[in-house]
Structure formats: C-alpha cells, structure tokens
Amino acid sequence: MATSEVLFCFHGKDYLTFKDIRSECRRVLSKYPAGYEGNLSKDDSEWFVCLAKKRHYNADVLFSKKIDSVEMYKRLGQSNNHLRFFYDDGSFLPFSWVKCCTSKKPCCKTERTNALRLAIVDQVIEELDRAFNNRLLVVCPMTLKVLCRDQVHVDHAVPCFADIVLLWLRQERIELSDVLVCDYEHGGKCMACDSQKTSWSKFHRNNAKLRVVCKQWNMKAGRHTKGEKNYGRDETENGRAATEPELYSD
Question: Where are the chain's structural domains?
Fold first, then answer.
C-alpha cells in the first residue's frame, strides 16, 4: 500500500496536503484580532519560520540573515494577514505564507500581471472610497446582498482586466514580456518603467468599469456566469486562488 508524501512536518505532526497547511496557517492567524499589527507569539513565529524554510521557493533569500521576529502588518491599507520577517540587523522582508502552500513557483507572466494590478491599486481604493462615502453598507449588484467594507472586492465589469491588459499591450505595440518589473518592497514585483506605468494607469482609468461586489461571489468558481450571460470573463479565468484576501479579484 502506497504511503502519502509528507509535505511538511512540525513538532511531530505531519501535513500531507497543501490544504492541511493552509488550514493550519489560517488557524494560527485567526488567533489575532482583525486589524492587528505587531509581532506574532514565539510559537506562531516558529511555525511560519519553519514553514517558510521548508516550503517557500525563495527560502535562500528569506534566510540569508538571522531572523529576529515575525510581524503581521497592513499592506496597501488592508490587514489581510500579511507577514514579514524582521532581522537582527533591523531590516525586514515580507513573505507570503500562501506561496508555501503550493508546488508552483510564480511564472514571469503571473509576476508581470500582478505588477500591472499593483500599478492601478490606487484606482481600486478610490472605487472603494467612493462606494462607501458617507455610508457603512452597500448593495452588491450581482447578489443584492447588503455588505460592509470587509465583505467586498472591487471587480472589473466588461471589459475584464485581462482584456484591458491585452488592449493596452496592443496600443503600446509590446508583449507582456516587455513590461519591465522589479522587486517590490512589500514582496512580489512592481512596474519598473515610469513611462509604462503612467501609460498603463491612464489607459486603465479610461477603460475600466470597476464595481464593488460581494467578496464571496467574486472568489467563487463560475461567479461571473449568471444564466446564459457572462459577467466579466471566461470561466477559465475565474481561477484566482481564494487563499489570501485581496483588495480586488478579477
């Protein structure tokens, strides 16, 4: 009888699936109140340090210096359980625990797409602020549910984000691989060329139709299909993993 491969072992407990690891990460983080910013406990810090050392694809960089503590912090105004390592020399480096729960290393296409998303996050925040201006609740246009700010995402109505990117690339007469990126201080990649960033931001503002929708609906497989109509994209594009909350998903 074949035995399952152990993906991660912590204090004698074996985790056989990525789902098991994700569930434990969420359980650990759920002990901290909403909006918490500060160091994790010693035991919780040990969990994430051991996990990153074993499972993070960029572990060589993360552990190039001695880690002093693990901190939960807000990124782009959102708490969302973001973590970073603080080192004994006073420096710090963010890391994604979600990347420890997958066997896939981010590809260049994904990194560039995420950099494009990051470049227009100010527009996403503007849409959130506009929707909740002088009100505590909004109604999702897709589900008709009444929602507070913590229950929503900002989504692209037609044209979807992927289509806007494609149209911009055609306008600039470049390929996605021509979008210049560099390391972002909070982790991941950001656009490195100011002229590309300015052009992309202006194009997105002029062509995107943003809407505030129910987070659960937006992260659900097949969520953009209602009856015979498609609200935003093909079903194959629904696959943004619901493993880490975000400002928006599309």
Answer: 8-101, 108-238
Contact call for residues 102 and 21 (beta carbons, < 8 A): no
Distance CA 230, CA 46 (A): 45
164 alpha carbon, distance to own chain's centre: 20
CATH class of 8-101: alpha beta
Count other C-beta atoms under 10 Å from residue 70's C-beta. Answer: 23
**Full DSSP string of 200-211:** HHHHHHHH--EE
Smallest Cα–Cα separation from 160: which of 241, 231, 239? 231
Q: Is the pLDDT of residue 213 over 90?
A: yes
Task: Provide the token pair at 221.
Answer: 């497989």
Whose CA is closest to 140, among 152, 156, 128, 122? Answer: 152
- Per-residue pLDDT band for 95 (boundaries 50, 70, 90) equals confident
Which tens digits make up the pLDDT trace of 22-47? 999 999 999 999 888 899 999 999 99
Cα separation, 129 vs 139, whole angstroms: 15
Report the alpha-carbon distance of residue 159 to residue 137 in Å, rounded: 26
- The secondary structure of residue 248, as a DSSP letter, is B
pTM of the model: 0.58
Q: Which helix (H) or strand (E) holds 52?
A: helix 42-55
* Coil/strand/helix, residue 1: coil
